[in-house]
Structures are given as C-alpha cells and as structure tokens.
Amino acid sequence: MTTIDIPEGSLYGLGNLPYGVFATPGTAPRVGVRVGDSVVDLAVALGDDVFARPSLNAFMAQGYDRWVEVRSRIGDLVRGDVPDAAVFAVGEVELHLPFEVADYVDFYASEHHASNLGRLFRPGAEPLMPNWKHLPVGYHGRAGTVVVSGTDIVRPCGQRKAPDEDAPTFGESRRLDIEAELGFVVGTGTPLGSPLSTADFPRHVFGAVLVNDWSARDIQAWEYVPLGPHLGKSFATSISPWVVPLLALEAARVPTPPQEPQVLPYLRESEPWGLDVEFAVSWNGQEVSRPPYREMYWSPAQMLAHMTVNGASARTGDLYASGTISGAAKDQRGAFIELTWGGQEPVTVNGEPRTFLLDGDEVTITATAPGAAGRIGFGEVRGRILPATEAKR
Amino acid sequence: MTTIDIPEGSLYGLGNLPYGVFATPGTAPRVGVRVGDSVVDLAVALGDDVFARPSLNAFMAQGYDRWVEVRSRIGDLVRGDVPDAAVFAVGEVELHLPFEVADYVDFYASEHHASNLGRLFRPGAEPLMPNWKHLPVGYHGRAGTVVVSGTDIVRPCGQRKAPDEDAPTFGESRRLDIEAELGFVVGTGTPLGSPLSTADFPRHVFGAVLVNDWSARDIQAWEYVPLGPHLGKSFATSISPWVVPLLALEAARVPTPPQEPQVLPYLRESEPWGLDVEFAVSWNGQEVSRPPYREMYWSPAQMLAHMTVNGASARTGDLYASGTISGAAKDQRGAFIELTWGGQEPVTVNGEPRTFLLDGDEVTITATAPGAAGRIGFGEVRGRILPATEAKR
Asked: Domain named Fumarylacetoacetase N-terminal: which ranges (chains A, B) (predicted)?
C-alpha cells in the first residue's frame, strides 16, 4: 500500500480530483484521477469496471448522485492508503482524450472578444450584432477533430481571399491563430423535447476542460458568410486531458457581469454560474496573455439552457465551449488576432515581433481557480504547429 | 426456403438493394436489405454477425471492396432461394435510424435555393455571397438530433424578433419549414491530415439518404449572424430509413451544371458526380413540389473534398447533406419559405391557402433515380408536426 504525497501548494489536492484517461506502456487506456503528482487507477483502487474503459462516458452517464459518491470515496481512499498497483507518477503515464465527444458546440460568450472580432471582421459596422445581448450566440463545431493536449497541429490549407484580391487562392493558412476557451462536458443529457433549465446545469454537466479552438483566420474570413465558420475551425480543437469536476468549482462561482437588457426568463439564473477561472496563454514558453473567465457575459448554465430550449436533446459526452475568453485589457485577450489587432500590432515573443503562428510555434494554455482548500489547476492544453502537408493536392 | 417476389416496376429491384436497420416485435434491431416488398435479414441470410448489430456502421467500416462483395452476394442470394427465417414483409417491420451519425454537415449547394434565401433574408443585397461559386458553403449541424423518418416533430420554441419589433420574444416558432435534401453517408473515413480528393468519393461514401432539415425560419433569422444557424435547425433533422448504396447510383450520374468561374484544382472532378435524382414533396398528402437534384451546382464529391481539404478527418457515420434542393421553377422549390416567397404567396393545399407548417401537418419527401434496370427508389422521409410543449418554461 502507498500513501499519496500531496506537495504543499499543489493544484491537485483533495479539493480538485480531476478525472482523465491514461495508459502506461503496454497497457490499455483507463480512467484515473490526479492527486498531487500521482495518477490513481480507479478500476483498481475502487474495484469498479466502469473505470476500466478508455473514456469517461460510461461513468459520466451514471449521473450526479454517483459523481458525488465517487468523489467522496476517492477522498476517503486518498486520505488513507492506496494499493501500490493503482498508483502511477503523472510523468510516467500517457494521457488520452478523456471522453468520446458527442456533439460539440462553440459559443461566443465574451463581450470583449465579440466586440473585437466585430471590429476586425466588419470594420465600420456596429461591432456587436443586435442579437448578442439577447442570447448566447453559438454554433456547432466538428466533434471528430477534437484532440487531446500534446497532439501536433498541422497547418491547414484552404481557400483564402484578401479584401484586395479579385479571387481566392488555395494554400496554407497565413493567419493561424488560437482561441483560449473553457469547455463544459455534459454528463447526463436530456431526451428530445425536454429542455434543461439554468438550474439543471450542475446536475447535468460533469466538468470542465481547457479548450484551444485553433482558427485559420484567412480561411474563416472568406468562408463564414452566411452560414458561419467551417473549415477555418474544423481541422483541430485541442482540449486538456483532465476534466475538473463541476463539484470542485463551488468556490470559483461568481456572478456574471450585469446583463442589460434583462434576458428572457428561460435564461435567468437563480444562482450564479459565472466562474473565477484565471487563464494564462504562453507562446513558445513566454506568457503573452492572462484571460479572465470571470468577465464572460454569458454563464455556462445559460449556454446549456439556450442549447436545449428548442427541444434539442443533449447526450453524454456533448462538449460545449465558451468561445474565446478576452478581458478588457489588451494583455487579457485570448486570441492572437485580438492581441495583435489583426496582425497590425505585433507582440514581442522571446525578443521577436510576432503576429500569427509560425511553423514550430508551441502554445500552452493553463488555468487555475479558487478551490475548497487552496487553488486548483486545470492542467494545460498544449499544441505545436507542424508545416502544412502537400498530400493529395 | 422462399423465393422473393419482386413486383413488376418495383423501385426496389436488384439494381437498388438499399440497406436499413429493422426489428420485428420482441426482436433486436439488425441490418436488413430491401428487395421488392420484403426485407431480408442479412445476419441470417449471409451468416455474418456484422449485420446482427443495430447500425450499419460496422459493415460500412469494412470498406469499399467489402461493399462490392456483399452487394454481389445479396444479388446471387435473392436470385435463388432465401431461408424463410430471413424474410419479412416490409409492412411488418419497424425501421430504425440506419446508422450512428458521427458528424453532420449541411451544405448549401443549390444556386436557386441560395439565391432565393439571399433575397428573402437580406433584401436589397446581392443574393449570392461572393464566396458562393468558389466553394461549397456548409456548416456543422447537430448529429444527436438526427432522427429516422416517422418520428414526430415537436414544434420548437425559441427567440424570435420580427424586423418591426424592438426586442425578441420567446415562444413557439411561427415559421416552421422543411428543407428537402439528399444526404451522403461516409463509410470509411480518413485520418487527420489526409484530405480526400473528389476521385476518392466513391470509395469512401457508402450511400445516400433523403433528408428533411426542419427549419424554424423566425428563430434562424434572429440568431444566425454572425456564426450561422443553430437553434433554428438543431431541434430535429429527419432521414429516410433506407441507405441507397452509391453502387446503385451509377446510372443516375450526370454532370453538374457548368461551374463558372472555374473552381480551384482541389474541387475539379475527372468524372461527373452530379446525380439525376427526382424528388417529390407532399404536404398532407398533396404533392406541392418536385425538386430536381440534377440542377445542384456542387457535387457530393466536391463537398467531400472541400470538407477534408483543411486536414479534417472524416469518420464512419459522418453524414453530409446537400442543402435544400430547388430548381428554377416555382414548383421545384424544396423549402416552403421559397415556395410561398416568405409566406407572401400561399400555396393551395387540399383547398386551403397555406404558408408555413401548422400543428398536425405531415410532410413526406420521396425520390427516385434511374437504375441499372429500371428506376430505383429512396423510400421516404416523413414527419408530422406536434404542438409545442410548455415543459420547464
């Protein structure tokens, strides 16, 4: 038996207990929980086969009461001794995509981001669309290209047309960008015709992950009217390997900023679900931005209520993300198109002026939040840009 | 043993052989093929467990050579005698969703439809966006709400704002509509970073289904800027239960209309993949439109090449649909918003002037195409409108 050491100030203490899917060389991926710098194999430690699977989906589908029970049992377990065979150092395991993604929806919930993008994509027009303060604008993304942190990102090719060009050309994206976001994972869904209310949020959403919604701005700008972004986004979306349980985020709850005009009844909340999560974005190891999630206009409970208000079902494994997190200050912007104002105002990265991503660049997004006993960590979502391939073109 | 009778002029002769998932009372759903007015249980008839599953996915994932082989074996089988236990009358089986939908993309490939919608949604502006003739515009829809023909459609609620109203109101959609489309099912996908060419289309796409992309125009018109349609579409998309193999559509192949300006090289085709599929739309039993698929500007091979050109992977079960099929003539329009010109020009249905869908209305979309030996049928996609529910609001 082993006693798990939790280092002083660890972001992965008993107040966090994020779930992931891990494997060691020669073994099958299975569910683990991170404690300090260790990963505990839950199938072994709790003797339950629901954790002996390569995704969290079966466990998530067991529902809220079960999530509470397992969290409590893990706490008891870790306070005592854990079987040796259940404990691995986090550095010796490989982390996999933690859940099978059902549908993926990306929102647009930061007023600063939506205003900045409006100014950049539609110069001279009102930056916020008339609907923006009435509903959380969102759209479906490609679930099949959600990848786990550490997956290399191949620079996408596609059609691009600059405003001063007569016709589009085909080639690699010259304006490859990131979007730092927080994603929410549906644990138990709802059938067709049974909308979820804002109050249903904590019983249906299992947890949260960090999201980097890689974006090819030149492809996006040319394609996105009138049906929205498609190939400018669908090549890859990276998520962090650890799913922080919503149960770990009680101490992070804050009100959203004031919503004026007042929202329609189905979007009102009786309890606040804004979240005080502090993000940091690093570009080749240098921190360039600190987006504040607490400034997001729409809460994740409002997003869930909106997404199902038309009767759409939700499923275990549905992922919905906040959209880029940007604060009011320049160094709080969660996308490089905003941070460099469309490439016109380079930022200095390791001594070099930089705008969009170059081949070989690596971006790492991390986040922390207040927990029940000290801050808790979301881990990281990281990706490196590989050159475009010329296959089949 | 039984000899399967194929009635003279049947749309389901040996040149068709569409696959579906069926069950009889008290038995589990499994894969069958339609022959005349019979359904043949393929697990029993061919003695292969890949067909003893509740979806076509495992069979589709076996790939093109296997699709050819099984089609040939079914032909041989049906020309001889089939075990009694493998044969059911089509009227005695229940048909299920034929495959698990991975990602769902909806295109916008009819020039007539895109022009009509442009005039209706953006009066006074150029109807076609500048990108429209350069790329097949498309967006992701909600995979989790794809339902099989016959599923009732509950009228969705949501935010609507008429141009003359100051603020949106919440309530049931007053402009509920259909979109008659043809959908394509990916049999074998491609990994991240390996785009499919137009020539790859017949080896990767397994077959085609009829699609009714139910659309709440009032919800859509208010929400869709700038990120595209979301709740105006995500409440339900109906598909036909029979997947017509692409192998059955050789005789239906036609060139697309001339594409001018010339498209970029990755969208060019060495062989035509336009399809001469004739649709019919019935509203409460009365035919109101005959959309001609052969007039679609973009081919499904071009859609597939476009969808993956940025390196996006494709998966077994991906569904992509053409967008509304509309011809040049008024009675060839595949959506009621076009057929009634935004509700200003009612059509007469069973003696009554009608615009958008009322509760209790039923819409049935059918289609046929030339086959190797006589016309082949796609079956139908049918749905009835139920009143909005007031649950949880």
From this structure: 16-98
Nearest to residue A110, comparing CAs of A350, A283, A349, A275? A275
Reported as a pLDDT band with limits 50, 70 and 90, residue B134 is: very high
Q: How many CB pairs under 8 A join A and B?
A: 218
Q: Which two tokens stand for residue A379?
A: 């881990």
Where residue A162 falls among pLDDT bands split at 50, 70, 90? confident
Q: Which residues, at least 6 apart from A230, have a Cβ–Cβ distance to it below 8 Å? A: A223, A224, B105, B137, B138, B139, B140
Cβ–Cβ below 8 Å for A138 and B315: no
- Report which of residues A390 and A22 the model is more confident about: A22
CA distance B387 to B42: 39
Interchain contact B137–A (C-beta under 8 A): yes
Give B223-258 pLDDT, tens digit per residue: 999 999 999 999 999 999 999 999 999 999 999 999
What string of DSSP letters covers A144-199? GGEEETT--EEPPEEEE--TT-SS-EEEE-SSEE--EEEEEEESS-B-TT-PPPGG
Mean pLDDT of B208-219: 98
Set of chain B residues whose Cβ sits within 8 Å of the Cβ of A154: 192-193, 311
CB–CB of B138 and A227 under 8 A? yes
Q: Cβ separation of A226 and B192 shorter than 8 Å?
A: no
Asked whether the beta carbons of residue A227 and residue B226 sit closer than 8 angstroms, the reply is no
**Partner residue opposite A197 with nearest CB, options B194, B310, B392:** B392
pLDDT(A392) > 80: no
Average pLDDT over residues A233-245: 98
Residue of A137, A312, A392 with shortest CB distance to B223: A137
Place of tokens 């959908």: B183
Say which DSSP state B119 is in. Answer: H
pLDDT, average across residues B339-367: 97
Is A134 in the B-facing interface, judged by CB distances under 8 Å? Answer: yes
pLDDT digits 0-9 by tens, B54-91: 999 999 999 999 999 999 999 999 999 999 999 999 99
Question: Does pLDDT of A129 surpass 60?
Answer: yes
Spatial contact of A314 and A190, defined as CB atoms under 8 Å apart: yes
Instruction: Give residues 371 to 390 of B whose Cβ lies within 8 Å of A.
Output: 389
Q: Is A386 helix (H, G, I), strand (E, B) or coil?
A: strand
- Go through the domains of chain B in sequence order and give each one's CATH number: 19-96 (2.30.30.230), 104-386 (3.90.850.10)
Contact status of A310 with chain B (Cβ, < 8 Å): yes
Mean pLDDT for the stretch of residues A303-313 = 98
Q: Cβ contacts (< 8 Å) between A123 and chain B: which residues?
A: none
Residue A391 in this model has a pLDDT that exceeds 50: no
Structure token digits, residue B162: 């008429």
In the numeric block, which tokens belong to residue A98? 């933690």
Q: Are A350 and A286 in contact (CB under 8 A)?
A: yes
